[in-house]
Amino acid sequence: MMVCVSLTAIFATTGTQAAFATLEKGDKWALQEEETFVLSLSSSNGLLNLGDDDSFLRNATIDNVLLNANVGMYVLFEVTDVNETAYVIKVTAAESIALVANLSMTGEFVEPGSYLEWAEPGYANPDNLKDIEDALVSERTLDADIKLAGGSQQTALFTIERSTMNVTSISVDTLTYLRGNFSGHNIPQIDSWGNSSFEQLNITSYDDYSMGLVLDLHLSGIVSFIPGIAFIADALPEHEEFESEFLVNGTLNWSGVLDITGLPNWLTEKMFTEDVAKWGVTGFPVDLAKIYNPGSTMINNGTMAIDDIDRDLEVYNYANRTINDPVFGTIQVQELGMTDSVRYLYCPENGRIVGAEVYAISDMFRLKLASAPVADVEKAISGVSDQVEKKQTYDQIMNKDEPEGLPLEWILVAVIAVIAVVAVGGFLYMRKKKPAT
Q1: Whose CB among 79, 89, 211, 255 lies 3.0–4.6 Å from 27's, allowing a Cys bridge?
Q2: Is the alpha carbon torsion for 223, 225, 231, 235 positive or negative?
Q3: pTM score, two decimals?
Q4: Residues 6+ apart with CB under 8 A from 362
C-alpha cells in the first residue's frame, strides 16, 4: 500500500511550492570534528579511598587512572549528477579509533569464599556463612589496561527529489574494522544472590586476563523510500516539526567476522546460550554472514530483505539562528533534529548541511561537526582509508612518522557519518519520539 508524505507546519504563510536553493553538478562541501578528551587521576597521598567493611574491597587507593581520547570524524558531500527532477549526492565519510586506558588500584581485598553480605534480624543463616565484615583480607593491586584501534569508511549515494528535497533512495558501501586487547591482573570473579531476607556474596577467585578483539565488517546495499524521507523543509518555523511517512524497500548484505580470544569459560557459557544458538551463533569466532533470524526470513545468512516496511520520521526545528561558519561566513541556519542527541544545521540560502552535533554516553561527550575546507577533509579521509585497508593496530597508528591527515591522539567514540547511514539504522526499527515543547 502506498503511503503518502504528510508534512505538517511547513508552509506557515503560503501554500505555494517550496523554494529550495539550487545545487550544481560538481558542488562540494565538507564537515569535520576533532576534539580531545583527557582523564588523568592519581591518589598517591591516600586522600581518595574506596570500599568499606561491608564490601569485598577496603581501604583502596587509586594509584592511577588514565584515559586519553580524541574524536576525529570527516564527511565530504559532492553533487555528482543533476537532472530535471533529482540530485544525486555522494557522501564519503570516515572515522578512526585509537583508544588507550589504564586503571591501577591497591587495597585490601576479601579472600575468596562465600559470605553473608546482608541479612534481616533473626535470619537463621542455615549455611553458616561468615559475615563479610569478619572476612580475612589481603593486600592486592588490581590493574587493567585497554588498547583499541579501528576505523570505518562509508560511501553513500543519495537520490534527492528536487521539488521537495525528499530522499528517495540511498545506496551504501561501508568497511569497518576493530583491533583491541585487554589485560587485567587480580580481577575479581564475583556473583551474588539472595532474597528479601538475605544477600550472599561469592568470591570465586582473583584472576589474570589477556583478551584480544578482532572485528571485520563489510556492509553494502540499497534502500528506497516511497514517496521519500523529508529531512528538511522550506521555511519551517522555530519549535515546529514536520513528519514524513513512507514505505521502505531494499536489500542489505554483509560479511565479516567477530572474534574475542582469552575469555574465561564461565563468561562464554553465559554469552552463548541456547537462545543465542538459534541465531546461528555458537561461539567465537562468529561468522557474521551466517547469522539468521529463527523467527523470520528477513535476516538470513548475511542478507536483510526489506519489503514494504511502513515507517515515519519526525524532524523538529529547535532554533533558527545566525552562525559564523568557518567556510561560508555569516549565514542563517535551522537547527534540526530527529532526537535531542543528534542535530544538524541546514542553511536554506545555500541548500547545504553545514554542521551537526552528536551527544554520546548520556550527553557526557559532545561532538560538533562544522564546515571545513574540502581539501583538508579529502586528505583526512584518504588517511583513514589507508588505516582501514591495512587494519592497523593501536601501536601502528600511534607510531606513524607522518600523520597523513589522521588524528594521532586517542579516540573515544567512533560515530558513523551523521548523514550517510541514516537509512541503514534507526528508520527501519525505531519510531522517533516527538521532542518536548
Answers
A1: 79
A2: positive
A3: 0.77
A4: none
pLDDT in tens, 135-191: 999 999 999 999 999 899 999 999 999 998 999 999 999 999 999 999 999 999 988
Evaluate whether 415 touches 366 at the Cβ level (below 8 Å).
no
Average pLDDT, the chain: 82
Pairing verdict, β 113-119 and 130-131: parallel
Grid coordinates representing 304?
536483510
For the chain, the C-alpha Rg in angstroms (whole number) is: 26
Instruction: Considering only the C-alpha atoms of the chain, give the largest distance between any 2 of them, rounded to a whole number of Å.
Output: 83
Sign of CA dihedral 201, 202, 205, 208: negative
pLDDT band at 400 (very low <50, low <70, confident <90, very high): low
Other beta carbons within 10 angstroms of residue 345's beta carbon come to 25
Neighbours of 173 (CB within 10 A): 16
Distance of CA 336 to the CA centre of its chain: 20
User: How far apart, in Å, are the Cα atoms of 417 and each of 69, 129, 131, 244, 314?
Assistant: 19, 54, 53, 22, 20
Amino acid at 437: T
Dihedral sign for Cα 414, 418, 423, 425, please: positive
pLDDT band of residue 364 (cuts 50, 70, 90) is low
The distance from CA 209 to its chain's CA centroid, rounded to whole angstroms, is 26
Q: For residue range 35-48, list pLDDT tens digits in order.
A: 666 766 655 555 55
Listed by start position, the domains of the chain span 28-420
Which residues does 359 contact at the CB level (< 8 Å), separation at least 6? Answer: 340, 341, 342, 365, 366, 367
Do 151 and 96 contact (CB within 8 A), yes or no?
Answer: yes
Q: Are 371 and 325 in contact (CB under 8 A)?
A: yes
SS3 label, residue 212: strand
